[in-house]
């Protein structure tokens, strides 16, 4: 696989900070950055959001449980969006555990602590959840609305806002913490694990 470090190399072994590039079956060009080593492989996050904004819930008032695990966004990530990934990437993906469940997703979005190192709006996460490599730098938290579009994007995080029926945490276009209604469309910056 072609990997960009200080120079472009061809390797199957990843290091923190490596950037890989690929094209979705929709024709959208994507870059993803290595942000955490795990026992099962390297965790990547897209450098920018996917070009189409998504809602956390189409209609949160009608949802039985308004949380990320039951969200329309999670279903779309692991359905339509996952299917748009090229076979060379999908073939190396490893499922990631969903919270404390026995479910595994191929794609997910980050949590507040993974981006900010704390939970400004949502409930506490387990102590084992750590900030992603590079995210202490505000510039790394900022993402475009699609690769290199020049338009800064707000993007969703998994955390529901504490004491709110339908607000979820997100990253503002300035790299700061914020929150908004689950039925509004914001960017999606998928996380995935490659073996």
Plain-language structure description:
This is DUF6273 domain-containing protein. Residues 62-194 form the DUF6273 domain. Pfam families: DUF6273 (PF19789). InterPro entries: DUF6273. This protein has helices spanning 72-83, 87-90, 112-116, 138-141, and strands spanning 2-4, 8-10, 19-23, 29-38, 41-46, 54-55, 93-94, 96-97, 104-105, 143-144, 152-153, 155-160, 167-171, 177-181, 185-186, 191-194. By secondary structure, it is an alpha+beta fold. The protein has one domain (2-194). A seven-stranded antiparallel beta sheet has the order 2-1-3-4-5-16-7, with no helix packed on it. The protein is globular, with a radius of gyration of 16 Å. The relative contact order is 0.21.
Specify Rg, calculated over alpha carbons.
16 Å
Helix content: 10-25%
Q: What series of H and E elements makes up the topology? A: EEEEEEHHEEEHHEEEEEEE
> Judging from the principal axes of the Cα atoms, what is the shape?
globular
* Number of domains as seen in the coordinates: 1
> Which class do the helix and strand fractions yield?
alpha+beta
Search tags:
alpha+beta; globular; 195 residues; 7-stranded antiparallel β-sheet; single chain
Question: What's the layout of helices and strands?
Answer:
Layout lengths: L1 E3 L3 E3 L8 E5 L5 E10 L2 E6 L7 E2 L16 H12 L3 H4 L2 E2 L1 E2 L6 E2 L6 H5 L21 H4 L1 E2 L7 E2 L1 E6 L6 E5 L5 E5 L3 E2 L4 E4 L1
Antiparallel strand pairs: 1-2, 1-3, 3-4, 4-5, 5-16, 6-15, 7-16, 8-9, 10-11, 12-13, 13-14
């Amino acid at each position: 696989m072609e990997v960009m470090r200080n120079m472009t190399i061809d390797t199957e072994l990843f290091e923190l900070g490596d950037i890989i590039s690929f094209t979705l079956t929709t024709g959208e060009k994507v870059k993803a950055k290595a942000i955490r080593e795990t026992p099962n492989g390297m965790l990547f996050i897209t450098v920018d959001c996917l070009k189409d904004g998504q809602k956390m819930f189409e209609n949160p008032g009608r949802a039985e449980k308004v949380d990320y695990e039951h969200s329309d966004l999670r279903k779309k990530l692991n359905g339509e969006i996952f299917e748009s990934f090229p076979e060379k990437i999908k073939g190396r993906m490893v499922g990631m555990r969903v919270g404390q469940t026995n479910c595994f997703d191929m794609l997910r979005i980050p949590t507040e602590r993974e981006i900010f190192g704390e939970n400004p709006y949502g409930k506490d996460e387990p102590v084992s959840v750590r900030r992603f490599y590079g995210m202490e730098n505000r510039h790394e938290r900022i993402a475009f609305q699609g690769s290199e579009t020049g338009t800064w994007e707000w993007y969703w995080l998994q955390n529901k806002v504490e004491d709110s029926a339908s607000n979820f945490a997100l990253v503002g276009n300035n790299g700061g913490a914020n929150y908004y209604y689950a039925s509004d469309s914001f960017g999606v910056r998928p996380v995935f694990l490659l073996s």
